[in-house]
């Protein structure tokens, strides 16, 4: 059996297709458990803020069963040290940007397919990130969240085996409502949760 890092993008998309599921209250518990582990084991950098983001953070929204976490770090931090701390928790690095000091990691992707619990972790410097505005705008505007769910269902059928195209096809919607969130929250993130 091939290791994930030996697979082509086409093989990975076949193994990990776009699958949308009904809202699951357990996503909040999955997030809380993983957050606690990160807080307890991240010794190489100071945490500014950690948030559950993405569709699984929005009540009643259909979603890929993947819990997205935004981890914001304070000041100067060493990417290699942060990665080492997170790898001790079984996180796998998907992407790294040394210039922007960001890391994307995942957990729950196995050579046989998805594990029961799947996560994406987005490590970034403390900032004014659009993911928070988008999430909170959907939470306070359930009709927009419903429209987003409908869009995702259409795109799931069209791009089931092409994650990049699926994500790209959602970009205009996400950009529009992230901007509306910035305007609604006066350009200053204020959690609604």
UniProtKB/TrEMBL annotation:
Matching InterPro entries: GrpB/CoaE, NT_sf
Name of one Pfam family that matches: GrpB
Protein name listed in UniProt: GrpB family protein
Annotated source species: Secundilactobacillus pentosiphilus
């Amino acid at each position: 059996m091939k290791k994930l890092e030996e697979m082509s993008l086409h093989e990975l998309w076949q193994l990990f297709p776009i699958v949308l599921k009904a809202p699951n209250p357990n996503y909040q518990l999955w997030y809380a458990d993983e957050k606690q582990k990160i807080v307890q084991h991240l010794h190489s950098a100071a945490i500014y803020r950690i948030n559950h983001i993405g569709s699984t953070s929005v009540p009643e929204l259909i979603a890929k069963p993947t819990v997205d976490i935004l981890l914001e770090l304070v000041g100067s931090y060493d990417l290699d040290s942060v990665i080492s701390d997170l790898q001790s928790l079984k996180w796998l690095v998907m992407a790294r940007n040394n210039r922007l000091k960001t890391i994307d990691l995942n957990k729950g992707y196995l050579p046989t397919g998805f594990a029961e619990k799947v996560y994406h972790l987005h490590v970034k410097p403390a900032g004014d990130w659009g993911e928070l505005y988008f999430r909170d705008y959907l939470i306070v505007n359930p009709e927009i969240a419903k429209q987003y769910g409908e869009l995702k269902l259409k795109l799931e059928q069209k791009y089931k085996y092409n994650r990049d195209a699926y994500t790209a096809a959602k970009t205009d919607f996400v950009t529009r409502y992230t901007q509306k969130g910035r305007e609604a929250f006066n350009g200053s993130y204020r959690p609604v949760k």
